[in-house]
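Supplementary Methods. Inverse-folding protocol.

Structures were first reduced to a discrete structure-token string of length 121. This string, shown here, constituted the complete conditioning input.
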């Protein structure tokens, strides 16, 4: 499935709801604060995120985060089932991510900024 910010996808909504959750979040550990890191370091960060999510009891699907303009490299990530904006802040802060995506069917997927970036704007 292809998710686009601000565009509903009934198949994605159905897939999330079929898991018995009302929301999901897309999160990655790659390139903290949008600063490119070497691939081995990014892979280690992503493995840590996945391990910590599992230890905290979150169910996840693997994702690939792509820049539609192709100016930023693909980043592996997680679709965290059941995680909404309130829980997402802790993970964005913990893994130094500027933004993540929240899916709340039947609404459109939306970008959520790091708490410090929200308060700065």
């Amino acid at each position: 499935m292809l998710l686009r910010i601000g565009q509903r996808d009934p198949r994605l909504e159905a897939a999330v709801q079929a898991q018995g959750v009302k929301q999901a979040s897309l999160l990655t550990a790659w390139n903290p604060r949008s600063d490119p890191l070497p691939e081995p370091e990014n892979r280690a960060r992503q493995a840590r995120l996945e391990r910590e999510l599992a230890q905290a009891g979150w169910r996840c699907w693997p994702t690939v985060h792509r820049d539609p303009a192709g100016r930023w490299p693909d980043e592996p990530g997680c679709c965290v089932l059941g995680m909404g904006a309130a829980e997402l802040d802790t993970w964005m802060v913990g893994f130094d991510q500027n933004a993540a995506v929240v899916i709340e069917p039947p609404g459109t997927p939306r970008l959520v900024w790091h708490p410090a970036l929200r308060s700065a704007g």
